[in-house]
Design goal:
CATH class: Alpha Beta
Number of domains: 1
CATH topology: TIM Barrel
Shape: globular
Helix content: 40-55%
Strand order of the largest sheet: 4-5-6-7-8
Order of helices and strands: EHEHEHEHHEHHEHHEHHEEHEEH
Strand content: 5-15%
Length: 333
């Protein structure tokens, strides 16, 4: 017997996937979203294997039913005037329709100073950029660090998707690279930004890299009450914790219902046909919505144990899947 009380395709509210990556001019994901009652926010990101950030912006601007976050290049970091160039890129992006700005984990995990140390997100060279964002109330989505699993041996990782990824990409498995900044180093750098710029509109991508513990995440949200977090590619970590104590996870979501933004982190790079992509993202939307909306016992491919759904009421579902994105990205249309 189907015990689900609210299916995603029967919602009486529009839904927003506030964290996707449109990297193909075909715009398949935008079309699929529109046909599924979703709008999307595509995140321009300085990822080496993505199209250039100017190309990502062009794709976003032409895509239907789509908003975007802009970013800035770090290629000239350290050279005279690079901050002015970055701010000009941000201004141009906002003037062309961006609803916020993204920074990525290359800050903290890739770019190095002349002495070999790693450039962290709280480096003073970024202060003019954070100041500009604060003064102009431009939201900053920050992917800093990685899941805590990244710093653990594979056998100690909590979800299958992390075990698979870091086993197949050892260059990104920080447990194997002791010379790199630690997990805690990444979080400290992030918090120093918030301490120095308390007026900065800030969203911690991927549950602010505190996906492993709702207790720790609650402490962080309490310390920085104006911040929000998105769920992109981290719902499985909530499901993992729900396999042990679903009531505790439910209480966490209810307590912070105004600060959690849904995002899938789905990439559309033309690797899949439109039909294949449709099957992938529709299944993800439905299964993740079901976790929040239903009370039945569920499974997920990347979570070892079954878990019970949270059965949140429709008011909270609407916040997570729509209203909170509108609140943290107020220029969303």
């Amino acid at each position: 017997m189907d015990t689900r009380e609210l299916r995603i395709d029967r919602c009486n509210f529009n839904k927003i996937d506030a964290h996707v990556h449109l990297n193909s001019p075909a715009q398949s994901l935008s079309i699929i979203a529109k046909n599924s009652g979703f709008s999307v926010v595509t995140i321009n990101t300085e990822v080496p294997f993505f199209p250039g950030i100017s190309d990502q912006k062009k794709i976003a601007q032409k895509a239907p039913n789509t908003n975007f976050l802009t970013t800035f290049s770090t290629v000239n970091w350290g050279k005279n005037g690079w901050q002015d160039e970055a701010i000009q890129q941000i201004e141009l992006g906002v003037n062309e329709g961006a609803v916020g700005v993204k920074i990525w984990k290359n800050i903290g995990m890739e770019i190095q100073n002349m002495n070999g140390s790693y450039l962290m997100a709280d480096d003073s060279s970024f202060n003019p950029i954070y100041k500009f964002l604060s003064e102009n109330r431009i939201p900053l989505l920050a992917h800093l660090g990685e899941p805590k699993n990244c710093w653990l041996p594979v056998e100690e990782m909590t979800v299958t998707s992390d075990r698979d990824y870091f086993s197949n990409h050892p260059q990104y498995h920080m447990y194997l690279h002791k010379e790199m900044p630690s997990y805690q180093d990444q979080l400290i750098a992030r918090d120093r930004i918030l301490d120095k710029f308390p007026g900065l509109p800030f969203i911690g991508a991927h549950l602010a890299s505190i996906e492993w513990s709702i207790d720790e995440l609650a402490l962080w949200l309490n310390k920085y009450p104006s911040t929000g977090v998105d769920l992109a590619e981290r719902v499985c970590h909530l499901q993992h914790q729900a396999s042990e104590n679903p009531g505790k996870v439910r209480d966490f979501i209810e307590n912070y219902q105004d600060r959690i933004i849904y995002g899938s982190d789905q990439i559309d790079d033309a690797t899949h046909s439109e039909e294949e992509l449709s099957n992938i993202i529709r299944a993800k939307w439905e299964n993740e919505f079901r976790f929040f909306s239903d009370s039945d016992i569920q499974t997920a491919w990347n979570v070892e144990k079954p878990f019970r759904g949270l059965k949140l009421n429709e008011t909270i579902l609407k916040k997570i899947f729509c209203e909170n994105a509108l609140k943290y990205y107020p220029l969303l249309r």
